[in-house]
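Friendly challenge for the regulars: who can give me the structure tokens for this chain first? No prize, just bragging rights.
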Amino acid sequence: MWKKQVGCVWGILLAVTISGCSSTELEQRSFPLAVGIDAGENLVVSFDFPDLAQISEKGKTTDTAMGLSLEGADMYHVEKSYENNTNRVLDYNHMKAVVLGENIFTDTEKLRGLLLSWEQREESARNTSLLMGKESAAEILSLTEETEGSMGTYLEEMLESQQDFRQGKIATMGNLMNQWHNQNELLLIPVLTEKGNRPVITEYAAVLNFRYKGTFTVEEAMEVFLCQNLLKKFTCESVKNEVVEISDIRVSKSITLEGRQPVVAVSVQGTGRLKTGQMNSASEQYQLEKNIEKQLLADLMETAERMRQDYGIDMTNSYVSLGGENRDLYYLYKNRADDYNRDVQQIFQVDISLANWE
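First reply, four minutes later:
Bragging rights claimed.
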């Protein structure tokens, strides 16, 4: 991983050189690769910097700490405090990840202010990965002893290694900004906790209509992603401990009004491969298909109903496509996303074809 970090830092230096900046200008800039933001009476912002001193020929960056936390009323005052204390300006062009503490999601005013400052800053990219720190964002950014340096690089590589997701489906700052402006889409954000002095994803946080709803297990989150057709692979385990990996996933849905209740019907199809045990006959293959379909159907129905009743969440995220799916329902629930998410009933159909046992 150290070679990758060196390459990343040299990329920063090359980009600045090509843009025409002099060495003096480079020395006056700091390039955070990740920031962690917690909310209390003020914002507490933790910065993760590359260790430029280890590869700088002249060693002129040794006065820049790899980790630093500052407090301020908002991002403007935090950044000014950094500039006043270091004689450097922050350059966000190479940011890899933003980690927000759970408490900032419960303070809508501070969250709006943070997104406003992000939107107004030209170098703040909307596709920067977004994560949540369960205890605090500062704690996550401090876990550098076992991650071989930069936390920003470590988080970037950790997210890129998740091969189950379709391309471009990692939560970003742009997704959260869309929530802020449109307030009608379900967003699941990876939650980081410490395990063995490393950050690991242990839950997913749900934000709906720009309101924090709580956290769900990784398994529940994967079911949400599955029924929204956001996964390339999904693993299901039957009551008999048979594990099947489902690929070639195809999901379709339709929205209808039955009586006075909106109903979204989701069809999940895919090809399964047995990961544990073995099949010895066509009849065993057929029975396993039925076991997996039954288990997955039960899991989806249970999760959907619990999210709807306990949190007012439609795990199929069907409200965002209501205008194109059912115009009558669209006009009935226009500007009433919360009512729709509480009222809608989800039904599922599952069809899994196992690879031949021979």
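Residues 282-311 form the longest helix (30 residues). Confidence is low (pLDDT under 50) at residues 1-24, 54-64. Your move, everyone else.
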